[in-house]
């Protein structure tokens, strides 16, 4: 059977993040990608110039179209900007009994532009997080979800992961890309305990879409039958290689994208 994953997220007109990054990642990793678009952004490597939210009822219609026809094995969820959108997606997951869900709680773009309305944070925590097999916040997102300072070391990251687990997800992967140090360290906490994923920190401006790419790579691994820990390890390796190869690309004049097809081009 062909592995199939669907991304439920916003569109990045610049092509480096969001739906576009997710579909590139799925394709690069041998997974057929479907999509449910939750928002349109006017966006490039310099920032987000505008956001147009898709009506919740049309998001629901997209979800029903995909799940009624395709044998979806994994779901990646990204940008959901408003409470009504979050509610529509949560209801769709329940309606179609989707339980292999990777939730990337996208709040702020690499450029610093806010992508999630402040009033939507509580809806995300209460209505969607409990449906996730794993949530993948970066350090600022984890802090915002808990209303705490940003974790400055691995002990603090673990503490925040433990508190995020109380919101009801199956697992929490806190990404350490915003930290300092020679290595970029991600911590995965699940029912088995803690797993540490480390890779050398790379000096590059081409970091646009890294969070989207990691979460969609995890979803791709799950769609292919990997367990969560192996999917997370494979995703970390893929993103690290895509970052390392990003200097081969010349895209825009701001934060460029990672090289999703580094293994092919």
What about the largest sheet?
6 strands, mixed
User: How far is the N terminus from the C terminus?
Assistant: 27 Å
Number of strands: 9
Please, how many helices?
8
What's the overall average pLDDT, rounded? 93
Structural class, by secondary structure, is alpha/beta
Shape: globular
How large, in whole angstroms, is the Cα Rg?
17 Å
CATH homologous superfamily descriptor of the domain at 4-136 and 208-248: Ribokinase
Share of residues in helices: 25-40%
Examine the coordinates and then state which fold CATH places here, giving the name of the CATH topology of the domain at 4-136 and 208-248.
UDP-N-acetylmuramoyl-L-alanine:D-glutamate ligase
Using the coordinates above, name the CATH class of the domain at 4-136 and 208-248: Alpha Beta
Strand content: 15-25%
Output the strand order for the largest sheet. 3-2-1-4-5-6
CATH architecture of the domain at 4-136 and 208-248: 3-Layer(aba) Sandwich
What series of H and E elements makes up the topology? EHEEHEHEHEHHEEEHH
Runs with pLDDT <50, length 5+?
Answer: none
What does this structure look like?
The chain is α/β, with parallel strands linked by helices and 265 residues long. The protein has a domain of 174 residues: UDP-N-acetylmuramoyl-L-alanine:D-glutamate ligase, CATH 3.40.1190.20. It has eight helices and nine strands. The protein is globular, with a radius of gyration of 17 Å. The chain starts with a strand and ends in a 21-residue tail after the last helix. The relative contact order is 0.16. The model has no long low-confidence stretch (mean pLDDT 93).
């Amino acid at each position: 059977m062909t592995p199939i994953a669907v991304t439920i997220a916003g569109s990045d007109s610049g092509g480096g993040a969001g739906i576009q990054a997710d579909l590139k990642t799925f394709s690069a990793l041998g997974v057929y990608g479907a999509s449910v678009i939750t928002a349109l952004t006017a966006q490039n490597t310099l920032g987000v110039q505008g956001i147009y939210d898709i009506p919740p009822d049309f998001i629901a219609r997209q979800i029903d179209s995909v799940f009624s026809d395709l044998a979806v094995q994994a779901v990646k969820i990204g940008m959901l900007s408003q409470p009504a959108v979050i509610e529509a997606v949560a209801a769709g997951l329940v309606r179609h009994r989707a339980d292999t869900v990777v939730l990337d709680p996208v709040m702020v773009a690499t450029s610093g532009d806010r992508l999630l309305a402040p009033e939507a944070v509580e809806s995300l925590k209460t209505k969607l997080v409990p449906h996730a097999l794993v949530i993948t916040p970066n350090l600022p997102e984890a802090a915002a979800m808990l209303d705490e300072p940003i974790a400055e070391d691995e002990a603090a990251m673990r503490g925040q992961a433990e508190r995020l687990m109380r919101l009801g997800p199956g697992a929490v992967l806190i990404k350490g890309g915003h930290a300092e140090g020679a290595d970029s360290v991600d911590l995965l906490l699940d029912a088995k305990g803690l797993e540490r994923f480390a890779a050398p920190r790379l000096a590059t401006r081409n970091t646009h879409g890294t969070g989207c790419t990691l979460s969609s790579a995890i979803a791709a691994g799950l769609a292919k039958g990997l367990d969560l820990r192996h999917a997370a390890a494979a995703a970390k390796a893929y993103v690290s290689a895509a970052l390392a190869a990003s200097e081969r690309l010349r895209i825009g004049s701001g934060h460029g994208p990672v090289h999703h097809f580094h293994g092919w081009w």
